[in-house]
Design goal:
Number of strands: 0
Largest sheet: none
Helix content: 55-70%
Order of helices and strands: HH
Oligomer: single chain
Radius of gyration: 25 Å
Length: 94
């Protein structure tokens, strides 16, 4: 016997199109809050660790004197990354 799609609970819609939460949605538990905090703090720690390690290398590069070809490569690479990763990657593809 096939499953009747009409028996599946669906969220309610208001007249203005806003989707209301379903009735069986429960408030988050303490374990859920702990898991969310663990995930946010874990990712924050990973990103902070990467930033601190890479900033030391970047600071050393800024202490050097750049000549014209190095500045040209730096500017062109920055513009390309802004276009490829910023505009094309996030604005156009996602």
């Amino acid at each position: 016997m096939p499953h009747d799609i009409r028996s599946v609970p669906r969220p309610a819609r208001r007249a203005d199109g806003l989707i209301l939460p379903m009735n069986d949605v429960r408030p988050p538990t303490v374990l859920t809050a702990f898991a969310v905090a663990w995930a946010v703090l874990g990712w924050s720690a990973v990103l902070l660790f990467a930033i601190t390690r890479l900033s030391a290398v970047a600071w050393q590069a800024w202490q050097m004197d750049f000549n014209l070809p190095q500045w040209l490569v730096f500017v062109l690479n920055t513009l390309f990354m802004l276009w490829a990763e910023g505009y094309r990657g996030f604005q156009s593809r996602f």
